[in-house]
Design goal:
The protein is mostly helical and 310 residues long. It has a domain of 195 residues. 72% of the residues lie in helices and 0% in strands. The chain has twelve helices and no strands.
Length: 310
């Protein structure tokens, strides 16, 4: 017979324990979800690309590129103004203008992209910071699209600012500034659209290259070398072979791909592409080739990040 005595049904068993009120409260504010996370990654990308909130060395390169690009626009405006005063409107019409700017400044824009893109991606992967992003309501797709959009915004500013300086400089140097703007206002949507084409191409290729390594210097040097080598190599080989084959070889000059689109937008040949055999292709071929080198690399970049998990 058991000696165990059961408690009455109306008397619960005693439990040991103490409740402490340490002041924690549940969050009762607005839950912004993935949209807030995307905006945070976007804003952080802007700060990284411009070196904001970091030391002087981090600010030096991006702002140096922006100043150089703006300086090119200012120099072109001064040349046009001097030509206007010395030789009249006909002389000013023969100096480089909006249609020529992206061809002249393309190398600087490409190097800016090659140096800036690894800053946004390589450090996060090397230091594991991306894993902290992904434990939030944020996917790999959210992360890479926000980073891409942030750097695109910076590159658009770097591409458009010199064109605006050039426009204002040429208008200011004209005898009748408002008449000049009225006669040349169509240049504005053209250089805005051409700037989007240039920036989207450079940003996409640069970020795709940066996605394959955690070392910023490796990505930058590889991309700068690729841009520097393909232009003279393809031009020389294309001119040597000639014909349709030479034209297609010329299409692989990475620096010329967006400049051909610039030529299509402005309806005239820039100094950079006037000797390229690819200039003989129809506009539709040049535009399709540009999209192949921009959309497909972006798809590869997105595919590399969309399945990332912490």
């Amino acid at each position: 017979m058991s000696n165990h005595t059961s408690l009455p049904p109306d008397r619960p068993a005693a439990r040991a324990g103490t409740v402490f009120d340490i002041g924690y409260r549940s969050y009762d504010g607005v839950r912004e979800g993935r949209g807030r996370s995307r905006r945070a990654v976007f804003k952080d990308g802007l700060r990284i690309a411009l070196g904001l909130g970091r030391g002087g060395r981090a600010k030096l390169l991006p702002w140096l590129f922006i100043v150089v690009l703006a300086g090119i626009g200012l120099i072109l405006a001064l040349i046009a103004g001097a030509a206007e005063r010395l030789g009249g409107p006909e002389a000013a019409a023969n100096v480089p203008s909006h249609s020529d700017y992206y061809g002249i400044a393309s190398i600087v824009l490409f190097v800016f992209a090659a140096v800036g893109a690894p800053e946004l991606l390589c450090r996060d992967r090397r230091e594991g910071t991306i894993n902290l992003y992904l434990v939030r309501p944020l996917t790999g797709s959210d992360y890479i699209v926000s980073r891409w959009a942030a750097f695109l915004t910076v590159m658009l500013g770097a591409a458009w600012l010199p064109q605006i300086i050039l426009l204002l400089g040429r208008a200011g140097g004209a005898p009748a500034p408002m008449a000049y703007l009225a006669a040349n206002w169509l240049d504005i949507p053209k250089f805005l659209l051409a700037g989007i084409a240039m920036a989207a191409y450079a940003v996409t290729l640069a970020m795709l290259t940066a996605s394959f390594t955690t070392r910023r210097a490796y990505a930058s040097v590889f991309l700068v070398g690729l841009f520097a080598i393909t232009a003279p190599f393809t031009l020389g080989l294309a001119q040597e072979i000639g014909g349709k084959t030479g034209q297609w070889i010329s299409m692989f000059s990475l620096t010329n791909i967006p400049v051909h689109v610039n030529d299509v937008i402005f309806g005239e040949m820039s100094d950079m592409t006037e000797e390229a055999p690819a200039r003989l292709f129809p506009a539709s071929v040049k535009v399709a080739w540009y999209f192949a080198w921009t959309v497909l690399p972006f798809g590869v970049l997105w595919a590399r990040y969309r399945k990332l998990t912490p």
